[in-house]
């Protein structure tokens, strides 16, 4: 029989991770190969060009473009302060001068003697890249960034919003199916990555933001609450850039869904440990998952990255159902029939037999599951 493959989701107590930390354009790398770095350490920085501001200098002076150079007090490349004189006419007997001052702080990008236009550029924008996770710098990409490796406990979520952040894991839910209320969110949660149960509500999210929580990890989230929080429907765009004051990672899906026992147990095991998380999610055109990275102690010789491979479906494989019914429930593959089976749409598809964690035995289209890699 031909081997069967399915999209994979990793939940493991130990894995070797490699992360590229790359600048958006060339800049300076601040560390060297072999350096041990912490998540908050800066590893590279650069300056993004500021916004260009067109300015009709000849018109402001009341002169023609071809003689503009005779009245300039600045040149291309000069740094400007707001209100600084850029050009002035001589006036009559030293009087009745026309003086043109800079409307912004920035620099002179270009001066045209043909159009009389001056292009000003607002101040450059500093961009700094942090390591994001504790680890070892194993390679340098000159003027661009670094590659960092570490050994971590690692969980991939289903969906997330919000950018990169770090904090100590704090178990709030006493069980993976608990719906945590606002009463459990208080000042003690400040700066923490809090773990909830089967659902994070809008009220809990708002209380968490007010309490300074770094991130929330939950089994499920209501899509209406998410829309209210963001102010728009998320669609199929890449998430992770939302400026909402918190990062949210959903491990199971939308709605009230009990957090997987394995995920909950792993987070509980590392309660109080520092973790690095992000909510970046992309489903189409290159899958990107939100991540929970809990650094472990390691030696350099431990850093052997396993070769990337497709997730194999076989007897005994742990899977998660990703469509209704049984959405979000985890189970084990018990059979892989070769015969095609008709579904409701009358399409013939390949199926698998599985025993779910609630004891139910089901037959599911293989496209309706994803492998949980351990």
Q: Tags for this entry?
A:
40% strand, mainly beta, 4 helices, SH3 type barrels, four-stranded antiparallel β-sheet, OB fold (Dihydrolipoamide Acetyltransferase, E2P), 3 domains
Q: Which regions have little confidence, pLDDT < 50, spanning 5+ residues? A: none
Number of helices: 4
The percent of residues in helical segments reads under 10%
**Could you name the CATH topology of the largest domain?**
Glucose Oxidase, domain 1
Largest sheet: 16 strands, mixed
How much of the sequence lies in strands comes to 35-45%
The number of distinct structural domains comes to: 3
Q: Estimate the mean pLDDT confidence.
A: 89
Protein structure class: mainly beta
CATH architecture of the largest domain: 3-Layer(bba) Sandwich
Radius of gyration: 28 Å
Strand tally: 29
CATH class of the largest domain: Alpha Beta
| Global geometry | elongated
Amino-to-carboxy terminus distance:
24 Å
Can you describe this structure?
With 374 residues, the protein is mainly β. The chain folds into three domains: 52-121, Beta Barrel (OB fold (Dihydrolipoamide Acetyltransferase, E2P)), CATH 2.40.50; 158-289, Glucose Oxidase, domain 1; 311-373, SH3 type barrels, CATH 2.30.30. 8% of the residues lie in helices and 40% in strands. It contains four helices and 29 strands. The strands form six sheets. The chain has a 16-stranded mixed beta sheet that branches. Helix 3 links the parallel strand 18 (215-221) and strand 19 (247-254). 34% of the residues are buried.
């Amino acid at each position: 029989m031909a081997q069967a493959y399915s999209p994979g989701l990793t939940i493991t107590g130990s894995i070797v991770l490699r992360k590229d930390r790359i600048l958006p354009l060339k800049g300076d790398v601040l560390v060297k190969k072999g350096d041990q770095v912490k998540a908050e350490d800066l590893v590279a920085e650069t300056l993004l060009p500021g916004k260009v501001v067109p300015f009709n200098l000849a018109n402001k002076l009341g002169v023609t473009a071809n003689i503009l150079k005779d009245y300039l007090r600045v040149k291309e490349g000069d740094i400007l302060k707001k209100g600084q004189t850029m050009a002035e006419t001589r006036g009559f007997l030293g009087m009745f001068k026309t003086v043109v001052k800079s409307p912004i702080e920035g620099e002179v990008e270009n001066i045209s003697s043909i159009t009389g236009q001056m292009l000003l550029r607002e101040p450059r924008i500093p961009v700094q890249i942090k390591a994001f996770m504790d680890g070892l710098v194993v390679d340098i990409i000159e003027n661009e960034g670094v590659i960092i490796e570490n050994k971590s406990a690692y969980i991939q979520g289903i969906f997330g919003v919000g950018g990169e952040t770090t904090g100590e894991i704090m178990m709030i839910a006493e069980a993976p199916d608990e719906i945590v209320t606002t009463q459990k969110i208080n000042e003690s949660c400040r700066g923490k990555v809090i773990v909830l149960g089967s659902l994070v509500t809008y009220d809990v999210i708002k209380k968490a933001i007010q309490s300074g929580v770094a991130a929330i990890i939950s089994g499920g989230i209501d899509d209406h609450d998410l829309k209210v929080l963001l102010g728009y429907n998320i669609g199929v765009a890449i998430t992770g850039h939302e400026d909402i004051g918190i990062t949210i990672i959903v491990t199971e899906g939308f709605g009230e869904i009990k957090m997987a026992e394995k995920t909950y147990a792993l987070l509980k095991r590392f309660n109080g440990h520092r973790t690095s998380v992000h909510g970046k999610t992309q489903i189409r055109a290159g899958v990107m998952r939100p991540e929970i990275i809990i650094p472990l102690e390691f030696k350099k010789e431990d850093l052997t990255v396993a070769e990337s491979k497709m997730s194999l479906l076989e007897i005994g494989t742990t899977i998660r159902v990703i469509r209704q019914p049984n959405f979000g429930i985890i189970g084990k593959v018990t059979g892989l029939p070769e015969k095609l089976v008709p579904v409701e749409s009358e399409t013939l598809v390949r199926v698998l037999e599985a025993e779910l964690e609630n004891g139910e035995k089901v037959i599911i289209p293989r496209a309706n599951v994803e492998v949980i890699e351990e």
